[in-house]
Amino acid sequence: MRVAEPIVLSEEVRRKLERQSRGRSTQARVVLRSRIVLLASEGLQNKQIAMALDVAPRMAALWRGRFIEQGIEGLLKDAPRPGRSESISRACLIEKTTQSTPANATHWSTRTMAREMGISKASVSRIWRASGLKPHRVESFKVSNDPNFADKLEAIVGLYLNPPEHALVLCVDEKSQIQALDRTQPGLPMKKGRGATMTHDYKRNGTTTLFAALNTANGEVFGLCQEKHRHQEWLKFLRMIDQTIPANKQIYLICDNYATHKHARVQRWLQTHKRFHVRFTPTSASWLNMIERFFRDLTHNRIRRGVFQDLEQLITAIGDYIDAHNKNPKPFIWTAKANDILEKVTRAQTALNKRRSA
């Protein structure tokens, strides 16, 4: 008859095992394993332990041997189970997701990847979530190739972080082709269990262009809606700024490279108005202009879901939004340093060059 290897416990180990075997917050499997070891220390054989605890004899033998090899720590964890290596299948799935595309499609779905890898789509979804992968989404970008990017970047960020004394820094631009859209049928209001509704089709009632300037110091916005966005309208907007801002203030304008802003007549006007200093953003870098953030808020909060039966309603709505904004303006705080932005753009350009040469 085979005799199991005896177990001798010190007083300290016995007390720990007894606490584990009675602990209400201890995992049930750890409680059972502790009882197996305690009975084994009393001289019981594996078959006797199995009968006492209503388990299989091989389980009693397993945890007796695990305790002899690893001590109490061996009772708290399970040994690696046989089967497919999770790390290998996970690494292969991530590599295939990021480095390839399926036949006859632009991106992977959970179903196509599950068929490709021979696993369930739930496993694919779990690994994608854990790895932060979202093949169904794509983000747009544009890296500036302006040869003077660094100089323009430092000039603009310098105005944001350290503006000159006795001067205003204004982010200026135009939001063109804002459409006055009316729906073909009245929408239904939101109610419990259902969101508000709008018809998918619409009627166009004209367009307007908003010329706007954001005061970076306090967040106040100056706006002017005009029919077109030529240099004539741009000059009219600059004259409005000139009349609005006190004469003892220098004015620094941050704007993009749109041809209207560089028209010969505009340049001549600026030469005769010496308090205006223009700083142009690098090409393909409109995100440096903080007025774009205000335009985004205007579109999201007032225009996108608005219903305008004529152009006058749209212009009034834009004016009311700016007035409400200026009652409690809050500046957008610029925190990114020029060196950090430049390093990021340099990395992006390097990556693009590698892709082109590959």
How would you characterize the overall build of this protein?
It is a single chain. With 358 residues, the protein is an alpha/beta fold. The chain folds into three domains: 11-75; 86-131; 149-189 and 197-350, Nucleotidyltransferase, domain 5, CATH 3.30.420. 47% of the residues lie in helices and 13% in strands. The chain has helices spanning 11-22, 28-41, 46-53, 57-70, 86-99, 110-117, 121-131, 149-161, 231-244, 264-272, 291-303, 311-327, 338-357; strands at 167-183, 202-215, 221-226, 250-255, 276-280. A five-stranded mixed beta sheet has the order 3-2-1-4-5. α10 (264-272) links the parallel β4 and β5 (276-280). The termini are far apart.
Please tag this protein with its features.
3 domains; five-stranded mixed β-sheet; alpha/beta; 358 residues; elongated; Nucleotidyltransferase, domain 5; 5 strands
Helix fraction, binned, reads 40-55%
The helix/strand class is alpha/beta
Instruction: Determine the CATH topology of the largest domain.
Output: Nucleotidyltransferase, domain 5
CATH class division of the largest domain: Alpha Beta
CA-atom Rg in angstroms:
35 Å
Mean pLDDT value: 89
Strand order of the largest sheet: 3-2-1-4-5
The helix-strand sequence is: HHHHHHHHEEEHEHEHHH
Assess the beta-strand content as a share of residues: 5-15%
Major beta-sheet overview: 5 strands, mixed
Low-confidence stretches: none
Distance between the amino and carboxyl termini: 71 Å
Total count of domains: 3
Tell me the total number of β-strands. Answer: 5
The CATH homologous superfamily name of the largest domain equals: Ribonuclease H-like superfamily/Ribonuclease H
